[in-house]
Amino acid sequence: FTGECPGGNYFEELGGACYYFSSDHGETHNWQDSRDFCQELGSLLSLNVDLAEVGNEASCMSDSLLMQKITEKAEWVWLGATDLNSEGYFKWSASGHSLSSKDSYWGYNEPNENSDENCLVAGILGEHHRAYFMDFGCDPPHAFVCQIF
């Protein structure tokens, strides 16, 4: 997208991709309810919306901008990958693409392949207080990021 994102003021444009930051609207849910929220928002707006992805060819310019925005907001947020179907092998839910365990956005010692941690959260880690990926239990409520695909 260039310029304004569709869907009124719900979405924010970053590097050509459009994101909904639930923290701007006071929304927190577990991982599955966050995904359902994104998809329902998309249905209301007649758009294809799901939890945000990183590493998608169409959004490669926006990846670092998204991670910077998550860092600025200083929250843990759900993103759209899970290893529920195959422990240790994360897949993006919207595209079905694999998320490599060697991706540079993973935090130190992540993913740690704990079988109780099947959903992808991005949160602040380390002395530089930057957002990184972590595998995490799917049940706690967190803010989340939706993306128009």
TrEMBL record:
By its UniProt entry, which Pfam families does this protein fall under?
A: Lectin_C (PF00059)
| Gene3D superfamilies according to UniProt | Mannose-Binding Protein A, subunit A
Q: Where is the C-type lectin domain?
A: 14-147
Listed name of the protein: C-type lectin domain-containing protein
Query: What organism is the protein native to?
Result: Meganyctiphanes norvegica
